[in-house]
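Quick one before lunch.
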Amino acid sequence: MRECPECGFFTLKWESPFYVCSKCGLTLRRHELNELISRKKRERLERDLQEEGKEKYKRQREYLDWYMGKGS
Ligand SMILES: [Zn+2]
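Model of the zinc ion complex:
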């Protein structure tokens, strides 16, 4: 069993020539599955980077607020 990239459960079964998910019904050929997995990975990475960017921005704002507040 492999992890289904769609629902995240280890319900993906090889039924030649397809991978079939018994949970959500996803049916993919081997290369399609690999494509989907790498796409999902990329999406997750981009989301992480966005979150990181937001954190950085928040920290900068906090510092600025602190800095501005200090002057008055
Ligand atoms: Zn699934």
